[in-house]
Design brief:
309 residues, mainly alpha, 0% strand
Protein backbone atom coordinates (compact mmCIF):
# COMPACT_ATOMS: atom_id res chain seq x y z
CA UNK A 1 0.00 0.00 0.00
CA UNK A 2 2.79 2.45 0.92
CA UNK A 3 4.57 1.69 -2.37
CA UNK A 4 1.41 2.36 -4.38
CA UNK A 5 0.98 5.70 -2.61
CA UNK A 6 4.67 6.54 -3.26
CA UNK A 7 5.38 7.36 0.42
CA UNK A 8 7.26 4.27 1.62
CA UNK A 9 10.67 5.95 2.09
CA UNK A 10 9.34 8.97 4.00
CA UNK A 11 7.03 6.79 6.10
CA UNK A 12 9.81 4.39 7.17
CA UNK A 13 12.06 7.33 8.09
CA UNK A 14 9.38 8.93 10.29
CA UNK A 15 8.60 5.53 11.82
CA UNK A 16 12.26 5.01 12.77
CA UNK A 17 12.40 8.51 14.29
CA UNK A 18 9.24 7.85 16.37
CA UNK A 19 10.05 4.34 17.68
CA UNK A 20 12.50 5.28 20.52
CA UNK A 21 10.22 7.84 22.20
CA UNK A 22 8.42 5.63 24.76
CA UNK A 23 11.59 3.75 25.70
CA UNK A 24 13.49 7.01 26.22
CA UNK A 25 10.68 8.43 28.35
CA UNK A 26 10.58 5.28 30.51
CA UNK A 27 14.36 5.34 30.96
CA UNK A 28 14.46 9.05 31.85
CA UNK A 29 11.57 8.67 34.35
CA UNK A 30 13.19 5.63 36.00
CA UNK A 31 16.65 7.17 36.18
CA UNK A 32 15.24 10.41 37.58
CA UNK A 33 13.47 8.62 40.45
CA UNK A 34 16.54 6.52 41.24
CA UNK A 35 19.02 9.40 41.23
CA UNK A 36 16.75 11.89 43.01
CA UNK A 37 15.92 9.51 45.89
CA UNK A 38 19.58 8.47 46.14
CA UNK A 39 20.40 12.16 46.60
CA UNK A 40 17.62 12.52 49.23
CA UNK A 41 18.88 9.45 51.14
CA UNK A 42 22.37 11.03 51.24
CA UNK A 43 20.97 14.52 51.97
CA UNK A 44 22.80 15.76 48.87
CA UNK A 45 20.46 18.59 47.87
CA UNK A 46 22.96 20.06 45.42
CA UNK A 47 22.86 16.80 43.43
CA UNK A 48 19.05 16.72 43.77
CA UNK A 49 18.78 20.20 42.22
CA UNK A 50 21.07 19.19 39.37
CA UNK A 51 19.07 15.98 38.74
CA UNK A 52 15.74 17.88 38.70
CA UNK A 53 17.11 20.53 36.34
CA UNK A 54 18.55 17.93 33.99
CA UNK A 55 15.29 15.94 34.08
CA UNK A 56 13.26 19.03 33.13
CA UNK A 57 15.62 19.86 30.25
CA UNK A 58 15.58 16.28 28.93
CA UNK A 59 11.79 16.12 29.01
CA UNK A 60 11.37 19.44 27.21
CA UNK A 61 13.73 18.25 24.45
CA UNK A 62 12.03 14.84 24.27
CA UNK A 63 8.50 16.24 23.92
CA UNK A 64 9.60 18.89 21.42
CA UNK A 65 11.20 16.11 19.38
CA UNK A 66 8.05 13.95 19.60
CA UNK A 67 5.78 16.84 18.61
CA UNK A 68 7.95 17.62 15.58
CA UNK A 69 7.89 14.00 14.38
CA UNK A 70 4.09 13.75 14.82
CA UNK A 71 3.65 17.02 12.90
CA UNK A 72 5.36 15.51 9.84
CA UNK A 73 3.44 12.26 10.40
CA UNK A 74 0.13 14.18 10.34
CA UNK A 75 1.03 15.92 7.09
CA UNK A 76 2.06 12.64 5.44
CA UNK A 77 -1.07 10.87 6.72
CA UNK A 78 -3.34 13.52 5.16
CA UNK A 79 -1.53 13.05 1.82
CA UNK A 80 -1.98 9.29 2.08
CA UNK A 81 -5.77 9.64 2.63
CA UNK A 82 -6.18 11.92 -0.40
CA UNK A 83 -3.87 9.68 -2.48
CA UNK A 84 -5.72 6.46 -1.66
CA UNK A 85 -9.13 7.93 -2.58
CA UNK A 86 -7.67 9.16 -5.87
CA UNK A 87 -6.15 5.71 -6.48
CA UNK A 88 -9.51 4.03 -5.78
CA UNK A 89 -11.31 6.33 -8.20
CA UNK A 90 -8.75 5.73 -10.93
CA UNK A 91 -8.99 1.96 -10.39
CA UNK A 92 -12.79 2.03 -10.66
CA UNK A 93 -12.71 4.09 -13.84
CA UNK A 94 -10.44 1.48 -15.48
CA UNK A 95 -12.82 -1.40 -14.66
CA UNK A 96 -15.53 -2.62 -17.00
CA UNK A 97 -19.23 -2.06 -16.26
CA UNK A 98 -19.64 -5.79 -15.57
CA UNK A 99 -16.91 -5.71 -12.90
CA UNK A 100 -18.41 -2.65 -11.21
CA UNK A 101 -21.90 -4.17 -11.26
CA UNK A 102 -20.61 -7.11 -9.22
CA UNK A 103 -20.30 -4.75 -6.24
CA UNK A 104 -23.26 -2.97 -4.69
CA UNK A 105 -23.43 0.81 -4.46
CA UNK A 106 -23.43 0.53 -0.67
CA UNK A 107 -20.19 -1.46 -0.68
CA UNK A 108 -18.45 1.07 -2.94
CA UNK A 109 -19.65 4.06 -0.89
CA UNK A 110 -18.58 2.28 2.32
CA UNK A 111 -15.13 1.61 0.83
CA UNK A 112 -14.62 5.25 -0.19
CA UNK A 113 -15.63 6.60 3.22
CA UNK A 114 -15.04 4.04 5.98
CA UNK A 115 -12.64 1.49 4.49
CA UNK A 116 -10.16 4.16 3.36
CA UNK A 117 -10.10 5.68 6.84
CA UNK A 118 -9.70 2.35 8.63
CA UNK A 119 -7.16 0.90 6.18
CA UNK A 120 -4.90 3.94 6.52
CA UNK A 121 -5.43 4.01 10.31
CA UNK A 122 -2.99 1.07 10.39
CA UNK A 123 -0.20 3.40 9.24
CA UNK A 124 -1.06 6.73 10.86
CA UNK A 125 -3.49 6.50 13.78
CA UNK A 126 -2.53 5.89 17.44
CA UNK A 127 -2.85 2.30 18.70
CA UNK A 128 -1.87 0.84 15.33
CA UNK A 129 1.49 0.15 13.64
CA UNK A 130 3.34 3.14 15.14
CA UNK A 131 2.30 2.27 18.71
CA UNK A 132 2.94 -1.46 18.10
CA UNK A 133 6.60 -0.84 17.19
CA UNK A 134 6.94 1.70 20.02
CA UNK A 135 5.60 -0.87 22.47
CA UNK A 136 7.95 -3.62 21.26
CA UNK A 137 11.01 -1.36 21.51
CA UNK A 138 9.95 -0.05 24.93
CA UNK A 139 9.32 -3.59 26.20
CA UNK A 140 12.79 -4.77 25.08
CA UNK A 141 14.67 -1.80 26.57
CA UNK A 142 12.70 -1.80 29.86
CA UNK A 143 13.20 -5.57 30.22
CA UNK A 144 16.97 -5.32 29.66
CA UNK A 145 17.27 -2.51 32.23
CA UNK A 146 15.23 -4.47 34.81
CA UNK A 147 17.20 -7.70 34.27
CA UNK A 148 20.38 -5.74 35.01
CA UNK A 149 18.94 -4.86 38.43
CA UNK A 150 17.21 -8.14 39.39
CA UNK A 151 16.27 -11.16 37.30
CA UNK A 152 13.92 -12.32 40.09
CA UNK A 153 11.90 -9.09 40.04
CA UNK A 154 11.79 -9.19 36.23
CA UNK A 155 10.25 -12.68 36.27
CA UNK A 156 7.67 -11.50 38.82
CA UNK A 157 6.58 -8.79 36.38
CA UNK A 158 6.53 -11.14 33.36
CA UNK A 159 4.40 -13.74 35.23
CA UNK A 160 1.57 -11.18 35.33
CA UNK A 161 2.15 -9.94 31.77
CA UNK A 162 1.92 -13.35 30.05
CA UNK A 163 -1.77 -14.02 30.96
CA UNK A 164 -2.69 -10.69 29.35
CA UNK A 165 -0.93 -11.62 26.11
CA UNK A 166 -2.49 -15.11 25.99
CA UNK A 167 -6.07 -14.02 26.79
CA UNK A 168 -6.11 -11.03 24.45
CA UNK A 169 -4.34 -12.68 21.49
CA UNK A 170 -6.10 -16.05 21.54
CA UNK A 171 -9.56 -15.08 22.83
CA UNK A 172 -10.43 -11.40 22.57
CA UNK A 173 -8.50 -10.43 19.43
CA UNK A 174 -9.87 -13.22 17.22
CA UNK A 175 -13.43 -12.49 18.37
CA UNK A 176 -13.05 -8.76 17.68
CA UNK A 177 -11.73 -9.42 14.17
CA UNK A 178 -14.72 -11.67 13.41
CA UNK A 179 -17.18 -9.08 14.76
CA UNK A 180 -15.49 -6.27 12.80
CA UNK A 181 -15.88 -8.26 9.56
CA UNK A 182 -19.58 -8.79 10.26
CA UNK A 183 -20.10 -5.13 11.23
CA UNK A 184 -18.55 -3.87 7.99
CA UNK A 185 -20.62 -6.31 5.92
CA UNK A 186 -23.87 -5.23 7.60
CA UNK A 187 -22.88 -1.54 7.34
CA UNK A 188 -22.36 -1.93 3.58
CA UNK A 189 -25.77 -3.59 3.21
CA UNK A 190 -27.37 -0.80 5.25
CA UNK A 191 -25.72 1.88 3.10
CA UNK A 192 -27.08 0.11 0.00
CA UNK A 193 -30.60 0.16 1.45
CA UNK A 194 -30.42 3.89 2.21
CA UNK A 195 -29.04 4.58 -1.29
CA UNK A 196 -31.89 2.57 -2.85
CA UNK A 197 -34.48 4.43 -0.78
CA UNK A 198 -33.11 7.82 -1.84
CA UNK A 199 -32.42 7.05 -5.51
CA UNK A 200 -35.61 5.05 -6.15
CA UNK A 201 -37.96 6.90 -3.81
CA UNK A 202 -40.51 7.62 -6.56
CA UNK A 203 -40.73 3.92 -7.47
CA UNK A 204 -40.94 2.91 -3.78
CA UNK A 205 -43.83 5.32 -3.29
CA UNK A 206 -45.52 4.26 -6.55
CA UNK A 207 -45.66 0.62 -5.45
CA UNK A 208 -46.39 1.53 -1.81
CA UNK A 209 -43.23 -0.20 -0.49
CA UNK A 210 -42.28 2.39 2.16
CA UNK A 211 -43.25 0.19 5.13
CA UNK A 212 -41.56 -2.90 3.67
CA UNK A 213 -38.29 -1.07 3.04
CA UNK A 214 -38.48 0.70 6.41
CA UNK A 215 -38.87 -2.64 8.23
CA UNK A 216 -35.86 -4.05 6.37
CA UNK A 217 -33.79 -1.02 7.36
CA UNK A 218 -34.95 -1.25 11.00
CA UNK A 219 -34.04 -4.96 11.16
CA UNK A 220 -30.63 -4.29 9.63
CA UNK A 221 -30.03 -1.44 12.11
CA UNK A 222 -30.97 -3.79 14.96
CA UNK A 223 -28.52 -6.41 13.65
CA UNK A 224 -25.79 -3.76 13.48
CA UNK A 225 -26.60 -2.60 17.02
CA UNK A 226 -26.32 -6.15 18.41
CA UNK A 227 -22.96 -6.66 16.73
CA UNK A 228 -21.71 -3.30 18.07
CA UNK A 229 -22.80 -4.25 21.62
CA UNK A 230 -20.90 -7.55 21.35
CA UNK A 231 -17.82 -5.70 20.11
CA UNK A 232 -18.13 -3.21 22.98
CA UNK A 233 -18.27 -6.08 25.49
CA UNK A 234 -14.95 -7.56 24.28
CA UNK A 235 -13.31 -4.12 24.15
CA UNK A 236 -14.45 -3.46 27.75
CA UNK A 237 -13.26 -6.92 28.83
CA UNK A 238 -9.83 -6.20 27.39
CA UNK A 239 -9.71 -2.79 29.10
CA UNK A 240 -10.76 -4.30 32.46
CA UNK A 241 -8.07 -6.98 32.45
CA UNK A 242 -5.20 -4.50 32.53
CA UNK A 243 -5.98 -2.74 35.83
CA UNK A 244 -7.00 -6.05 37.47
CA UNK A 245 -3.86 -8.02 36.57
CA UNK A 246 -1.68 -4.88 36.68
CA UNK A 247 -2.60 -4.05 40.29
CA UNK A 248 -2.06 -7.65 41.40
CA UNK A 249 1.40 -7.67 39.84
CA UNK A 250 2.25 -4.32 41.43
CA UNK A 251 1.33 -5.56 44.91
CA UNK A 252 3.45 -8.72 44.51
CA UNK A 253 6.38 -6.64 43.21
CA UNK A 254 6.15 -4.27 46.19
CA UNK A 255 6.06 -7.16 48.70
CA UNK A 256 9.04 -9.00 47.17
CA UNK A 257 10.95 -5.80 46.49
CA UNK A 258 10.31 -4.61 50.05
CA UNK A 259 11.67 -7.85 51.51
CA UNK A 260 14.79 -7.54 49.31
CA UNK A 261 15.24 -3.96 50.48
CA UNK A 262 14.96 -4.97 54.16
CA UNK A 263 17.52 -7.73 53.52
CA UNK A 264 19.92 -5.12 52.12
CA UNK A 265 19.95 -6.60 48.60
CA UNK A 266 18.58 -3.43 47.00
CA UNK A 267 18.06 0.16 48.16
CA UNK A 268 14.83 2.15 48.30
CA UNK A 269 15.86 4.21 45.25
CA UNK A 270 16.56 0.99 43.30
CA UNK A 271 13.10 -0.34 44.22
CA UNK A 272 11.55 2.87 42.86
CA UNK A 273 13.68 2.47 39.72
CA UNK A 274 12.36 -1.09 39.24
CA UNK A 275 8.73 0.01 39.83
CA UNK A 276 9.14 2.74 37.22
CA UNK A 277 10.60 0.25 34.73
CA UNK A 278 7.63 -2.00 35.42
CA UNK A 279 5.56 1.07 34.58
CA UNK A 280 7.22 0.92 31.17
CA UNK A 281 6.77 -2.83 30.64
CA UNK A 282 3.04 -2.93 31.40
CA UNK A 283 2.01 0.03 29.16
CA UNK A 284 4.33 -1.35 26.45
CA UNK A 285 2.48 -4.68 26.66
CA UNK A 286 -0.83 -2.83 26.49
CA UNK A 287 0.36 -0.91 23.42
CA UNK A 288 1.41 -4.15 21.71
CA UNK A 289 -1.86 -5.95 22.50
CA UNK A 290 -4.26 -3.10 21.67
CA UNK A 291 -2.34 -2.11 18.55
CA UNK A 292 -2.27 -5.73 17.33
CA UNK A 293 -6.05 -5.99 17.83
CA UNK A 294 -6.70 -2.71 16.00
CA UNK A 295 -4.43 -3.73 13.12
CA UNK A 296 -6.27 -7.06 12.79
CA UNK A 297 -9.64 -5.27 12.71
CA UNK A 298 -8.45 -2.60 10.28
CA UNK A 299 -6.94 -5.23 7.98
CA UNK A 300 -10.53 -6.16 7.12
CA UNK A 301 -10.88 -2.74 5.45
CA UNK A 302 -7.43 -3.02 3.90
CA UNK A 303 -8.46 -6.31 2.29
CA UNK A 304 -11.63 -4.72 0.88
CA UNK A 305 -9.59 -1.84 -0.57
CA UNK A 306 -7.11 -4.25 -2.18
CA UNK A 307 -10.00 -6.12 -3.79
CA UNK A 308 -11.07 -2.92 -5.56
CA UNK A 309 -7.50 -1.98 -6.53
Amino acid sequence: MLKKLNVRGKYILLLVLRIPFEALRTFINSLFLKESFTAIEKSDFQKLSAVCGLFLLEFLILFAYNGTVWRFFGSLYARMQAGLKKLLLQSLMKKSVEEIDKKSTGDLLFSFNVDVEKALAIYGEPWNLVFLLNGIFNLIISSILMIQVSLKLFFLVIIFVLPLIIITNYVISSKLKQLQTEIQKVSGELTEMYASLINLFDIVRLYDCEDFLKNKIDNKNLELKKLSIKKGFYVALNAGLFPLIGLSGYLVLMICGGSMMLAGIITYSTLLYVCQLRGGILPATQMIINSSMNIKMNKVSLKRIREIL
